Structure formats: C-alpha cells, structure tokens
C-alpha cells in the first residue's frame, strides 16, 4: 500500500501497486492476414487502452474508473467488436451488451441490446450507480440510458454511429456461408475460414463468429478489484440474442475476496458453465491459484463442452492469468512496475 498522510491529512495514492489487464477478443485469428499495419494498429490500440487506465490509477483513481477508461478506448476503435464497429444481427442492426462489477461491494450493472450510447460500458455503470437494478435489456436499456444520460454523463448517439463497412461485409459473409452450408452440408466454420483468405471481409478473424469483444480487470492501490466487458455480440446473431458478457458470473465478475474476470469467446458456452463465477469459486473455496483456476475453466469446462475463447483474471495480490483455447487473444497488461506488455498469440 502506498498510503501516506499529507499535511492536510488527505490520503494520497500513487498507483504503485496497481495492475490492469485488458483483452480485445479471442478467436481463430489468422496471423497471415494480421501481419504488418493491422497488427501494429491493434497492438497500438491495446497500449492506448492500458495507458488510459494507467493515468487513472497513477493519479489515485479507483479500479472501477480505470477499467471504464480502458474499455472506452477499445469501444471507440473500429478494430474491435464493441462500441463503434460492433457486429450486426442477422437483420443488420447493432445490439450491444456490457457489464461492470465492483469487487469491493459486489455492486454491478449491465445492459443488453443497447444501440444509443457511444460507450456501452458507461451505460452499464449508470445502471450500477443510478438504478436499483442490475440488468436492463433492449428497449428498457435504451430508454434508461436516455433518461439517465445527463446525470450519468452518457453520450447519446444515433444507432448508425456504430455501423461500419466492415461489419456489413462480415454479416454478408456469414449469411452467404449459412446459405451455402444449408445447400452443401459443409459447416459454416469451414466455409468462412476459407472465405476469409481472400474475400476482403474481416481481415484477421476466421470462422463463423466475429470475436473481438473487449474487457478489462483492474486492481487499485486500495486493494479493490473491478471488471468490465463490452461487446457487439456475434455476427449474424438472431435479434434479441444475449451473450455471456453482460451476465454477471458468466462473462464478467469481480470479488475482492477472490478475483476479477472478463471473458471473451463463444458466449453460450461461458453462460452454460457460469465461467467467470466458476473461476472465482475455485480460487476462493478450492484453494486454487489464479492460473490453475482460469486454465481449468477454459480448457476443462468451456473447452470440453466445445466452446472456445479466453479470460483475463486478476486477484487482489496482483497475480493474473490470461488463458485461451483459441489461436490467439488480443491482450495486454500494465504491471506493478508500470510496464506495459501487449500480445496476440
Ligand atoms: N462472448 C461474446 C458473446 O458471445 C463474444 C466475444 O467474446 O467475442 O457475445
């Protein structure tokens, strides 16, 4: 702890013991398509996200403020599937999900099917701080956001703000592959993996889902953990589908007594095994360390059931793990020494 009293007897926190982890999605990332400029752009954006969180933590901000700051940078980038650049439902609409949890109090907030707040993670935080509820969905989430915008500082935008040419191309590719799969019996995954080699669609993700969800877990100087996750979901999802990201305990969880978790991957599998909470329980009640618990859930629970993805996990001592059972996961860490590392494979 770096608490030191000043002349005014005011606590000063330097952020020296703070740790922040982020992810930008896990999936069948194609290294050949990612080389060069795109790879650099993604890694630079991950670094910017960590720096935004670092600024908060080093000026004495809380882990909650830091995870929001880090996630906002990734939501504002079209490189990831959250905020601007979110993937589209099969009817061509954006329906975004986000959740946040405070490890100190268990307070949490989440939204699903959101389409009018520039940074969905701020809407999730507004639910946590300005309502008596945990989760708002669809029309209710959008109207809550509009009503609370002023008080909570939410930026309201038109749904068209989130849509990019790339997300349209991804949707067209998936819908075409589904038709082809129905005709030939070849799986959508096999068809889209082939197509992604040269059809100008998503340049680095292959397979039937566009991953690229973003998330952050943070530990501040006071020893408080927080977790945040934000996503557009999966390309070509049915309207109204909700993934794991906004479900507390599935894709997002934080408890000072165990760990903070943000997940990414095929949400249905993370929901069925309540992945984030399972990691927390293994750490808290089964004496598991962070890496062992996180790997067990990703490789045994999610993986054996047929799911793919990864998690970032951090405990209140600053121990962390970032396991994934996919080809890659965009991720980064700001360590206690203030050093920043980013990686994909
Ligand atoms: N888990 C997200 C979902 O299923 C997708 C992702 O992480 O890429 O909605």
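Q: What amino acid sequence fits the structure above?
A:
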């Amino acid at each position: 702890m770096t608490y030191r009293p000043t002349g005014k007897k005011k606590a000063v926190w330097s952020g020296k013991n703070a740790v922040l982890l982020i992810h930008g999605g896990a999936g069948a990332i194609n290294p050949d398509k990612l080389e060069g400029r795109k790879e650099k752009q993604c890694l630079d954006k991950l670094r910017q996200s960590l720096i935004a969180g670092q600024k908060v933590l080093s000026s004495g901000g809380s882990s909650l403020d830091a995870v929001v700051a880090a996630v906002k940078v990734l939501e504002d980038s079209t490189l990831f599937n959250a905020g601007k650049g979110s993937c589209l439902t099969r009817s061509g609409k954006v329906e975004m999900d986000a959740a946040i949890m405070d490890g100190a109090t268990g307070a949490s907030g989440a939204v699903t099917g959101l389409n009018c707040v520039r940074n969905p993670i701020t809407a999730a935080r507004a639910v946590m701080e300005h309502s008596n509820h945990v989760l708002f969905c669809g029309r209710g989430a959008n109207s809550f956001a509009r009503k609370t915008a002023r008080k909570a500082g939410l930026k309201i935008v038109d749904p068209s703000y989130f849509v990019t040419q790339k997300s349209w191309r991804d949707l067209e590719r998936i819908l075409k592959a589904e038709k082809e799969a129905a005709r030939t019996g070849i799986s959508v995954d096999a068809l889209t993996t082939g197509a992604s080699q040269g059809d100008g669609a998503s340049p680095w993700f292959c397979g039937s889902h566009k991953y690229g969800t973003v998330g952050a877990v943070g530990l501040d100087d006071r020893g408080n953990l927080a977790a945040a996750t934000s996503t557009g979901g999966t390309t070509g999802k049915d309207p109204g589908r909700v993934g794991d990201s906004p479900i507390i305990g599935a894709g997002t969880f934080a408890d000072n007594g165990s760990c903070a978790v943000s997940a990414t991957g095929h949400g249905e599998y993370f929901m069925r095994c309540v992945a984030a909470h399972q990691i927390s329980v293994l750490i808290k009640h089964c004496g598991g360390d962070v890496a062992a618990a996180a790997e067990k859930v990703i490789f045994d629970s999610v993986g054996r059931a047929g799911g793919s993805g990864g998690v970032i996990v951090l405990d209140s001592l600053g121990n962390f793990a970032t396991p994934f059972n996919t080809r890659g996961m965009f991720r980064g860490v700001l360590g206690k020494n203030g050093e920043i590392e980013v990686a994909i494979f």
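Q: And what stands out in the fold?
A: Residues 25, 81, 211-213, 231, 233-234, 243-245, 251, 264-265, 267 surround aspartic acid (CB under 6 Å).
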